[in-house]
Specification:
Rieske Iron-sulfur Protein; alpha+beta; four-stranded antiparallel β-sheet; about 240 residues; 4 helices
């Protein structure tokens, strides 16, 4: 019985050694079967069901035939052209916007007012409308001019000499709007012989300077000029 048992164990061992060899041989055969044929593409499709013999698509016919330098020049040309067109469009838009925002002819006509000074007698006031605001024009006498120059400028709330407020001593031009709350002062009234604001009691002298009351500043002087004798242009 001992020789028979020994022979059985030898047979089992031989079979166990033969199985890995068979497995290795079968794996090698499978790999060889899966390997692509010579000359075939090595492309592996990511989609199931695709044949492994599919080739990579050829896009060469869509590629530019020119050189790399010519391609760059064409790209630069297109970028420059689009930039020029964009700049021209932006310029046209801004220009049209500015034209629409500019003042019309009737508004420009109201921007300046011409006054005939020959119609204003000495010692009298004239009130005209300029840009929606009243403008006082005073033809001052020599006594009024002397009175305005005698005032101590240092004692004023808003220090300003009479010479700084007029271009010609006999003509005083200023906005008729109180610097307190915007009321219209009354001419030839008040404690200083100039203008008086009835709203809150501000007193201005013959030069339009604040002398008494709540107003903080002198009456404003607009832009004006004398283009010729007897004519005044405001604005």
């Amino acid at each position: 019985m001992a020789p028979l048992a020994t022979a059985s164990r030898l047979c089992v061992r031989s079979a166990a050694v033969a199985k890995p060899a068979v497995r290795a041989l079968s794996s090698t055969a499978v790999r060889q079967a899966d390997a692509p044929a010579p000359g075939a593409a090595s492309y592996t499709s990511p989609f199931k069901g695709e044949s492994k013999a599919n080739k990579i698509p050829d896009f060469s016919k869509y590629m530019s035939k020119g050189s790399e330098t010519s391609n760059k020049l064409f790209s630069y040309f297109m970028v420059g052209t689009m930039g020029a067109i964009t700049a021209a469009g932006a310029k046209s838009t801004v220009q049209e916007f500015l034209v629409n925002m500019s003042a019309s002819a009737d508004v420009l006509a109201m921007a300046k007012v011409e006054v005939d000074l020959n119609t204003i007698p000495e010692g009298k006031n004239v009130i005209i409308k300029w840009r929606g605001k009243p403008v006082f024009i005073r033809h001052r006498t020599q006594d009024e001019i002397d009175q305005a120059n005698k005032v101590n400028v240092a004692s004023l709330r808003d220090p300003q000499s009479d010479e700084d407020r007029v271009k010609r001593p006999e003509w005083l031009v200023m906005l008729g709007v109180c610097t307190h709350l915007g009321c219209v002062p009354i001419g030839e009234a008040g404690d200083y012989g100039g203008w008086f604001c009835p709203c809150h009691g501000s007193h201005y002298d013959i030069s339009g300077r604040i002398r008494k009351g709540p107003a903080p500043l002198n009456l404003e002087i607009p832009e004006y000029d004398f283009p010729e004798d007897g004519k005044l242009v405001i604005g």
